[in-house]
Specification:
There is one protein chain. Strand 10, helix 10 and strand 11 form a beta-alpha-beta unit. The protein is α/β, with parallel strands linked by helices. It is globular and about 60 Å long. The chain has 16 helices and 14 strands. The strands form 2 sheets. Strands 1-4-3-2-5-6-7-8 form an 8-stranded parallel sheet, sandwiched between helices. It has a 6-stranded parallel sheet with strand order 11-10-9-12-13-14, sandwiched between helices. It has 2 domains: 210 residues, Rossmann fold (3-Layer(aba) Sandwich); 175 residues, Glycogen Phosphorylase B (Rossmann fold, 3-Layer(aba) Sandwich), CATH 3.40.50.2000.
Length: 412
């Protein structure tokens, strides 16, 4: 097989792969041309990076530490930006990094790609990411990205690879023990520190210089596409039942059982609804709660969910800047939440945004908060939270905040 035909075969293999332009060399090429692997890999990477710059999709899987790859092509005089994430599964921070890649100001910044440290399968976030930029997998891909950008944004166990640019920014999304361990490690490195809220900045040692840059959500996801009653019927709700919901990751660090506790305390006519993903053992435990909750899988278009719920409950003991709560606000859904994460600083600035419960609330405390949220007197609070979120906490506003911060940091 001549070189031209082999290159065409490689491109066809990439285009036919499940993840669109997933680059993996065919086995016969490995066997027949071991001395040319690096050269051919470089050609494929360069080709697909160029394609991704023209609106086509590119997913790059780095397989060989010996491969020598060229730098991605530079677009005019714009600073090049890369983003690193441990995975692209369904957590809030993963959605944040994809939204950020999409909504940085591309007229002022050249977003080269997203590096993903651990490959754990595809999903909606990966499909969305590859419509915007190149996605590069594994330690080799993250390091390649880090060494070929002017600014790098990263979070979690992805860390900051060797060879990263001077403008490397590590972002905290919470103040859990794990986040604090990584915050302590990153505070000792020559990187900029950022957090999505003052609460999340607690992950870093006291006295650290931390830029707080608030999150934003995509308002188009929050617009209902189906009638409320149709969605409720699909869930199996009875006419007139009050749906108390938990949306997002069903991890026990989020205290998802609070929705069922509220329904149980409120009695007949109230039902807990869970929409999201979680570890199988966590989902099994939720199924044993009484009254029996409704558990539905994650949906990408979340507006249908919030339109069908009567009240959203987020009783987490700790948060960074909850995307689910912000989506509930934008959707106009009444909310109940613990006063953690970004809520204290947002309410300091904008006034009350949600009905409060203490950390580790009792069923009675949750029930009273849900009653307040569902009362006619709460409608003005729901409208106020919706107005604040739509004005300040969209992905467009988040992208502007981050673009300004990156350019300011590069010019220091």
């Amino acid at each position: 097989m001549n070189e031209h035909a082999l290159r065409e075969q490689l491109i066809e293999t990439a285009l036919a792969a499940e993840l669109h332009n997933l680059v993996r060399l065919p086995g016969e090429f490995h066997a027949a041309n071991p001395e040319r692997r690096g050269e051919m890999a470089a050609w494929i990477v360069q080709c697909l990076l160029a394609r991704s710059r023209h609106g086509e999709r590119a997913v790059l899987d780095f397989w060989d530490d010996r491969t020598r790859l060229p730098s991605p092509p530079r677009r005019r005089d714009k600073p090049r930006v890369g983003l690193l994430s441990p995975t692209l599964l369904m957590g809030g921070a993963e959605r944040w990094i994809v939204d950020l890649a999409c909504h940085l100001d591309h007229s002022r910044l050249d977003v080269v790609g997203i590096g993903v440290h651990t490959w754990q399968g595809g999903g909606p976030l990966l499909r969305r990411a590859v419509q915007t930029t190149a996605v590069m997998f594994h330690e080799k891909g993250c390091q390649y990205l880090a060494c070929n950008v002017d600014a790098l944004i990263c979070w979690g166990v992805a860390g900051v690879p060797d060879g990263s640019p001077k403008c490397s920014i590590y972002v905290s999304h919470g103040a859990s023990p794990c986040a604090e361990r990584w915050g302590e490690v990153m505070a000792k490195k020559p990187v900029k520190l950022a957090a999505v809220s003052r609460w999340a900045a607690r992950a870093f040692p006291p006295g650290s210089d931390v830029a707080v840059i608030h999150n934003g959500v995509d308002p188009t996801r929050c617009v209902p596409q189906q009638p409320r009653e149709k969605v409720r019927a699909q869930w199996g709700l009875k006419p007139g039942e009050i749906a108390i919901g938990h949306v997002g990751r069903l991890g026990f660090d989020k205290n998802p059982a609070a929705a069922a506790m509220a329904a149980s305390a409120l009695g007949k006519g109230y039902r807990a609804v869970y929409v999201g993903t979680g570890l199988p053992e966590h989902v099994r435990m939720l199924r044993h709660l009484r009254p029996e909750p409704i558990i539905r899988p994650y949906v990408e278009h979340i507006g249908d969910v919030f339109a069908a719920l009567d009240c959203f409950v987020l009783a987490s003991p700790s948060e960074g800047f909850s995307l689910a709560l912000t989506e509930a606000w934008i959707s106009g859904c009444p909310t109940v939440a613990t006063r953690v994460g970004a809520i204290p600083e947002l309410e300091e600035r904008f006034g009350q945004l949600t009905q409060h419960v203490p950390v580790s609330p009792s069923g009675a405390e949750l029930a009273e908060a849900v009653k307040r949220a569902l009362s006619p007197e709460n409608r003005h609070l729901v409208a106020h939270a919706q107005s604040v979120a739509r004005k300040h906490f969209t992905v467009e506003m988040m992208g502007k905040r981050w673009t300004d911060y990156i350019l300011k940091t590069l010019n220091e």
